[in-house]
Design goal:
The structure is a single chain. The chain is of the alpha+beta class. The chain has one domain: Nucleoside diphosphate kinase-like domain (Alpha-Beta Plaits), CATH 3.30.70.141. The chain contains seven helices and four strands, in the order βααβααβααβα. Bound molecules: inosine-5'-diphosphate (IDP) and magnesium ion. Inosine-5'-diphosphate (IDP) binds next to loops.
Length: about 140
């Protein structure tokens, strides 16, 4: 069993029809999908998930955006899953994201940046636990 990370295909990417293409990137990078759920976040869920950013100037707009439409939420497994997924998605701002990264190819701007990725093993476990029960991680059983 490898490490786990948490990913979201954000509302901009789902709306633009990029879910399948982003799934391909996930599978091409050898991640195992432990669980996946299509979910429209409530404002309260988005606020809870991004509570760490509460003081940032973009927080309110981020909550509105993240609760504006369906998200595909995913628990992923791979050796060094957190750093490997961060490498696959690229920098927060797509203008700074490396060539071939998901954000470079699918993001609209720094807010509507197509995907989320956990930033540490500790946060990955917290984020997976925020949206999934252990028994929902069915590929793990
Ligand atoms: P990350 O998603 O690359 O880890 P964070 O700094 O954790 O980046 O920010 C969380 C999310 O908040 C980003 O993915 C993006 O959607 C949004 N965000 C970050 N910085 C800005 C900004 O300067 N303006 C608007 N939205 C931002
Ligand atoms: Mg972050």
């Amino acid at each position: 069993m490898g490490n786990r990370t948490f990913a979201i295909i954000k509302p901009d990417a789902v709306r633009n029809g990029n879910t399948g293409k982003i799934y391909d990137r996930i599978l091409q990078a050898d991640f195992k999908i432990l669980a996946a759920k299509l979910l429209k976040l409530t404002k309260a869920q988005a606020e809870g998930f991004y509570a760490v950013h509460k003081q940032r100037p973009f927080y309110e707009e981020l909550i509105d955006f993240m609760s504006s439409g369906a998200c595909m939420i995913l628990a992923l497994e791979k050796d060094n899953a957190v750093s490997s997924w961060r490498e696959s998605i690229g920098a927060t701002n797509p203008e700074e994201a490396a060539k071939g990264t998901i954000r470079k190819d699918f993001a609209t701007n720094v807010q509507k940046n197509a995907v989320h990725g956990s930033d540490s093993d500790e946060n990955a476990e917290k984020e997976i636990g925020f949206f999934f029960t252990e028994s929902e991680l069915i590929a793990n059983q």
